Amino acid sequence: TVYTATVTSPVNIATLKYWGKRDTKLNLPTNSSISVTLSQNDLRTLTSAACSEEYESNRLFLNRKLESMETPRLIEVLKDLKKLREKVENSEGNEHLPKLSQLNLLIVSENNFPTAAGLASSAAGLSALVKAISKLYELPDSLSEISKIARKGSGSACRSLFGGYVAWEMGELSNGEDSKAVEIAPLEHWPNIKALILVVSAHKKDVSSTSGMQLTVKTSDLFNYRINNIVPQRFEEMKKSILEKDFNKFAELTMKDSNSFHSTCLDSYPPIFYLNDYSRRIIRLVHLINEKSVKENGKIIVAYTFDAGPNAVLYYEEENEKTILNVFYKILSEVTGWDAQKFDFKNQEYS
Ligand code: DP6
């Protein structure tokens, strides 16, 4: 017999960044973070998990390439999931259940976006893997409970288990039992928020998040100020802005947090540069757009955020899409070769 389960898990993009670990083995963070999970129809990982008496070893195919399952993180993740399955199998009345915890696994995973572009692929990938195996094992545990396992695979993955607006509470315990993702609000709460990803470079990032944050924790003087004096209050304010659908506040906090995170990167020694000239041009353009619209009607209409790479994610409310794309027409067509003329987007004002 072959037992199977298939799931999808979307990419999540942090608006309040996770950067720094207090425990590198358990992926316990030095601050709480917030993200928006894109919808299931956007960038996502599709993963099938299967197990059978006939499989002689664990195997994992990522975008059709065989990958090792023997990495320390994956070993941890599988151990935890198997433990939960054993609990189900050993509980009273479940004697008839097949002993799936004893069987080898076959995992097949595909991204619908370029993995190399540094678009939080590990978050979607790890969360899809954990979700698929939890479904295969029919685990009764809550998503927050399962998120602790995803966290061990890759910190940011814990947030992708939930859709919409998600918080990862850093927790205090040294065993990580209280470091988990929780829902702030579902996507439908604020459905007109859109994310636009500007891929200015598809090169693999120079410094991985995992090693970048280690260097920042060790060497940056600004870092302690960020985690102690900035993030705790920002975390509460950002949650509030989401619950109140206050775009002005949400956008301001998102942009400031991206800048704060990249400042600690620059303050690392030797410094880490994730942004490039295009990123900085995008930042300036966003501020120009906002200045104009604040002057006209007091409203900020677009926010940028950058992860550990030069690609921008813009957040805006759908009704402002055309205004924003008009301005980005030039930079979009330059970088991507996209013929924006066809779409009738033109704006001389910012050129
Ligand atoms: C800048 O989750 O990739 O995207 O826990 O070492 O796997 P590991 O790191 P990872 O770091 C993500 C960093 C970030 C910010 C964020 O997503 O919150």
From TrEMBL:
Q: A Pfam family in this protein? A: MVD-like_N
Residues of the Mvd1 C-terminal domain: 195-351
Q: Name one GO molecular function term.
A: ATP binding
Quote the catalytic activity from the record: (R)-5-diphosphomevalonate + ATP = isopentenyl diphosphate + ADP + phosphate + CO2
* E.C. numbers: 4.1.1.33
Diphosphomevalonate decarboxylase-like N-terminal domain ranges (all copies): 10-181
Pathway the protein acts in: Isoprenoid biosynthesis; isopentenyl diphosphate biosynthesis via mevalonate pathway; isopentenyl diphosphate from (R)-mevalonate: step 3/3
The record's Gene Ontology cellular component field reads: cytosol
User: Which class of enzymes does this protein belong to?
Assistant: lyase
GO BP terms: namely: ergosterol biosynthetic process; isopentenyl diphosphate biosynthetic process, mevalonate pathway
User: Which keywords does UniProt give here?
Assistant: ATP-binding, Lipid biosynthesis, Lipid metabolism, Lyase, Nucleotide-binding, Steroid biosynthesis, Steroid metabolism, Sterol biosynthesis, Sterol metabolism
| Lineage: superkingdom | Eukaryota
Which family would the database say this protein is a member of? Belongs to the diphosphomevalonate decarboxylase family.
Protein name according to UniProt = Diphosphomevalonate decarboxylase
Q: Which organism is it from?
A: Ascoidea rubescens DSM 1968
